[in-house]
């Protein structure tokens, strides 16, 4: 029987890129993703933001099929059995199979079948593909056929990505949407994941990854709501925004499959040639910290001042800052000294894993990779400026509040920040001694070089922390590494400053004369470095030869 040109089942057709445990890349269907999860190392899409969007879709299926799971005992059974509830997953997918057809004429997956504008326009793929700047196709590696036609498999990936990460800005006005004015859909904000500092856990296999992020529904954690359904179990969306009373989100299922945009793909099995993208359902992230498990959260001063109460908002990652440098915002904070609400909250997936270690539901030697993902938007959030992805491998005990290892790791990251701050001051003082005018630029370049050199060392050092490690000795070893690295960098800066900086000059500031020269600047630097790294041996650079 010939394959229908108006059907492309995401359950049966290969469309999700993965790496297997032999690091071979291939595409699998959604059914295969679950059935072969123990043999798959990871979902491996073109962008890390695609990978997270597909992971959350898979988690929505798994939550629904496992009925939660309803509490820690149910989760333990899955984890210790080292298998997914495949029979339940298969039965569930069979029950909703027609809603996973990308080209269905009535309810195509994640789309509105009759979506159209006031005028019959043509739509290019640059609206859908995140790595193609709209109107600037010469700034992408895609060309020719890659810009005019996508396979249904690739189109499905970008469709899921668009619902999760699409920029804000003016969209095509859809007929039937009362928000449209003059044929335009005016900005409602970025898609649902775009506001998050997203964090998830990665295991040795996709099976472990799915289970580690399968935060259960349990009393005191999140109460189940019968209204919580994934988008494919609800009535197909129309062009209009859904009413507040029924929109939700009511739980993880609706959250993970939130329809931020109304989309329609144009094409068939031979290829998708265009996409119409309009505004969908707005999302307000305020105080969703007990619902969304994959984000860092922080208190919002402006909103608290306005609303006269504690308010939490997601805290996006800083693209220019490696994940380890913000370790204190990632790991669960120590208990507050007073009744005041915490300034920040770590992701629920990390809190949940810490709880599992305390209750001995997971092995005491478990190490996991914490993956952070986010997008930086520019020009009023209407374009994607940068995609951020970073990870840290660490022992699960580092996630536990009050853990000596957690304290050592956070304090060691802060040690590096302080020490690099002293290197920045050295660069500024050398620029002053030489009579330069761009001291800030010199300091930025020196700090960038320092962090680049420390990055590899911190990641390796962090991975060595495990039960039985002496926290004080571990921190001393790290401070020795930092001191050795920065002393050598400082010496390079002094040597590069030249004779003019060695002679120096007098600078008057607030009526006080100070002589700046490279020998004095280096002496100040070493003195301050000793204060910033009190556990490090000042003679370490003489006793130990380490390639930096």
Would you kindly provide a brief summary of this structure?
By secondary structure, the chain is α+β, with helices and mostly antiparallel strands. The protein has 17 helices and 15 strands.
Short descriptors:
3-stranded antiparallel β-sheet, Topoisomerase I, Chain A, domain 4, 15% strand, disordered C terminus, alpha+beta, 548 residues, 17 helices, 3 domains
Layout of SSEs?
Layout: E1 16-20, E2 25-28, H1 30-35, E3 40-43, H2 48-65, H3 72-81, H4 86-95, H5 145-148, H6 152-165, E4 171-172, E5 184-185, E6 198-202, H7 206-212, H8 244-247, H9 252-256, E7 261-268, E8 271-279, E9 297-299, H10 301-307, E10 312-314, H11 327-330, E11 344-345, H12 348-358, E12 367-378, E13 383-395, H13 404-434, H14 439-464, H15 471-503, E14 505-509, E15 512-516, H16 518-532, H17 540-543
Antiparallel strand pairs: 1-2, 1-3, 4-5, 6-12, 7-8, 9-10, 9-11, 12-13, 14-15
Helix pairs in contact: 2-4, 2-6, 13-14, 13-15, 13-16, 14-15, 15-16
Descriptive overview:
There is one protein chain. Helices cover 38% and strands 15% of the residues. It contains 17 helices and 15 strands. It has 548 residues and is an alpha+beta fold. The protein folds into three domains: 16-181 and 200-279, no CATH class; 297-398, no CATH class; 404-543, Topoisomerase I, Chain A, domain 4. The model is unreliable at 134-141 and 544-548 (pLDDT under 50). Strands 2-1-3 form a three-stranded antiparallel β-sheet. A three-stranded antiparallel β-sheet has the order 6-12-13. The chain has a three-stranded antiparallel β-sheet with strand order 10-9-11, with no helix packed on it.
């Amino acid at each position: 029987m010939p394959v229908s040109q108006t059907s492309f089942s995401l359950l049966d057709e290969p469309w999700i890129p993965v790496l297997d445990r032999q690091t071979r890349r291939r595409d699998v269907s959604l059914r295969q993703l679950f059935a072969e999860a123990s043999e798959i190392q990871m979902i491996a899409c073109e962008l890390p933001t695609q990978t997270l969007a597909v992971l959350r879709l898979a988690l929505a299926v798994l939550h629904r099929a496992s009925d939660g799971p309803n509490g820690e005992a149910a989760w333990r059974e899955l984890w210790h059995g080292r298998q997914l509830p495949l029979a339940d997953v298969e039965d569930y997918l069979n029950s909703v199979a027609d809603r996973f057809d990308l080209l269905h004429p009535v309810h195509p997956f994640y789309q509105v079948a009759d979506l159209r504008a006031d005028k019959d326009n043509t739509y290019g793929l640059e609206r859908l593909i995140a790595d193609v700047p709209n109107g600037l196709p010469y700034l992408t590696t895609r060309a020719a056929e890659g810009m005019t036609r996508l396979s249904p498999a690739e189109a499905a990936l970008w469709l899921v990505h668009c619902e999760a990460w699409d920029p804000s800005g003016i969209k095509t006005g859809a007929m039937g949407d009362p928000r449209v004015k003059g044929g335009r859909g005016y900005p409602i904000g970025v898609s649902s994941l775009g506001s998050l500092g997203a964090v998830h856990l990665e295991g040795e296999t996709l099976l472990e990854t799915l289970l580690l992020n399968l935060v259960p529904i349990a009393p005191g954690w999140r109460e189940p709501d019968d209204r919580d359904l994934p988008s494919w179990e609800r009535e197909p969306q129309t062009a209009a925004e859904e009413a507040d009373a029924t929109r939700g989100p009511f739980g993880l299922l609706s959250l993970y499959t939130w329809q931020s945009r109304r989309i329609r793909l144009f094409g068939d099995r031979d290829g998708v040639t265009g996409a119409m993208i309009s505004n969908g359902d707005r999302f307000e992230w305020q105080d969703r910290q007990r619902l969304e498990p994959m984000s860092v959260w922080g208190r919002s001063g402006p909103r608290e001042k306005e609303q006269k109460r504690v308010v939490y908002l997601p805290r996006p990652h800083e693209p220019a800052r490696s994940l380890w440098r913000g370790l204190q915002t990632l790991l669960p904070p120590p208990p507050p000294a007073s009744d005041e609400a915490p300034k920040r909250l770590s992701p629920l997936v990390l809190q949940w894993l810490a709880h599992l270690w305390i209750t001995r539901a997971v092995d005491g030697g478990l190490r996991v990779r914490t993956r952070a993902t986010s997008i930086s938007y520019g020009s009023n959030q209407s374009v994607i400026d940068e995609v951020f992805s970073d990870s840290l491998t660490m022992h699960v005990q580092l996630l536990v509040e009050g853990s000596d290892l957690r304290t050592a790791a956070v304090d060691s990251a802060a040690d590096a920040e302080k020490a690099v701050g002293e290197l920045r001051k050295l660069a500024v003082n050398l620029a002053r001694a030489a009579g330069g005018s761009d001291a800030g630029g010199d300091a930025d370049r020196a700090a960038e070089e320092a962090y680049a050199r420390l990055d590899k060392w911190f990641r390796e050092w962090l991975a060595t922390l495990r039960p039985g490690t002496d926290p004080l000795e571990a921190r001393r070893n790290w401070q020795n590494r930092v001191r050795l690295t920065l002393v050598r960098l400082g010496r390079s800066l002094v040597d590069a400053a030249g004779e003019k900086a060695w002679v120096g000059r007098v600078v008057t500031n607030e009526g006080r004369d100070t002589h700046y020269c490279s020998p004095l600047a280096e002496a100040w630097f070493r003195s301050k470095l000793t204060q910033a790294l009190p556990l490090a041996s000042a003679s370490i650079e003489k006793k130990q030869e380490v390639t930096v």
